[in-house]
Specification:
alpha+beta
Length: 87
């Protein structure tokens, strides 16, 4: 493998400020900000807008889409395709 070809892969803290959640992982992302982690070391921190702690799909707060109601409303408004109109 060639040296200096690949980006530096290092520990980084990703922090979801909305949920108050942070996790340590490895990444090639860079940041000037640092945070003191539980193990006493200082790591670069990257603030994210959404993570598994605040995403509606993972928290169980996802909305379900009522597709049947939408179709029925469309058919009432515009009629059905088999209404017999030539077209």
């Amino acid at each position: 493998m060639r040296q200096d070809k690949h980006p530096n892969y290092h520990p980084v803290v990703f922090r979801d400020r909305a949920a108050g959640y942070a996790f340590l992982t490895k990444s090639t992302a860079r940041s000037e900000q640092t945070i003191e982690w539980d193990d006493g070391h200082s790591y670069p921190v990257i603030d994210v807008e959404i993570s598994s702690e605040s995403h509606p799909f993972y928290t169980g707060k996802a909305r379900t889409v009522d597709t049947e109601g939408r179709i029925a409303r469309f058919e009432r408004r515009y009629g059905t395709a088999d209404a017999g109109e030539p077209g």
